[in-house]
Amino acid sequence: MSDPKDVFKRELEDAVRKLAPDLKVEVHVERPKNPEHGDGSLLEFGEAVFREQCASCHEEDARGDDDGFVPSLRNQHYSYLLKQTRALAENHRRNVDPNLVLFMANLKSDELTGLADYLSRLSGPVKDRLKMRDNGVVGD
Ligand code: HEC
Predict the structure, then answer these.
(1) Which helix (DSSP H) or strand (DSSP E) does residue 48 occupy?
(2) Is 85 near ligand 1, meaning CB less than 6 Å away?
(3) Is the CB of 71 under 6 A from ligand 1?
(4) Domain coverage including residue 77
(5) Which of the two ends of the chain, N or C, has the fewest CB atoms closer than 10 A to its terminal CB?
(6) 3-class DSSP state for residue 6?
(7) Is 58 a pocket residue for ligand 1 (Cβ < 6 Å)?
(8) Cα(39) to centroid of ligand 1, in Å?
(9) Shared domain check, 110 and 50
(10) How many domains does one find in the chain?
(11) Rounded to the nearest whole angstrom, what is the distance from the C-alpha of residue 41 to the centroid of ligand 1?
(12) Do 49 and 26 reside in the same domain of the chain?
């Protein structure tokens, strides 16, 4: 099967050629920079990794814990999830348990991609998130 991107490119070029035969056109089709989802190829893998490695804290349905300390991972864009998991792994976020950072740093890149794709397709109500301030107090 041909890539829908290539088909679209060819159709667009044909259409322009019909309208303006003298014009020389070349169409470049780019994937969106901040896609809502991944390409789906690692979806099942991502789900398995989530159930095995993340559900214990973030809950089976990714809604976060009832105390509001572990955030929900629902309703978020693929690109945001990828960025956040990478930021956690690279210790770019403050107030995060060092063990969690180590844990995230050990995920392989296809695990991260699959996880982000799987999570980006989850939606539903979420708990309000409590935040931990710099002094370690959890609250609004
Ligand atoms: C030991 C419990 C625990 C496990 C296991 C865990 N997390 Fe988390 N996760 C947390 C906590 C706590 C935070 C909040 C960190 C903070 O204060 O910013 C968090 C934050 C996150 C965030 C940032 C959310 C946001 O909106 O900013 C993402 C994304 C995330 N986790 C993904 C994952 C994934 C994917 C896995 C499995 C590979 C995972 N977590 C496993 C406890 C956990």
Answers:
(1) helix 43-49
(2) yes
(3) yes
(4) 43-126
(5) N
(6) helix
(7) yes
(8) 23
(9) yes
(10) 2
(11) 23
(12) no
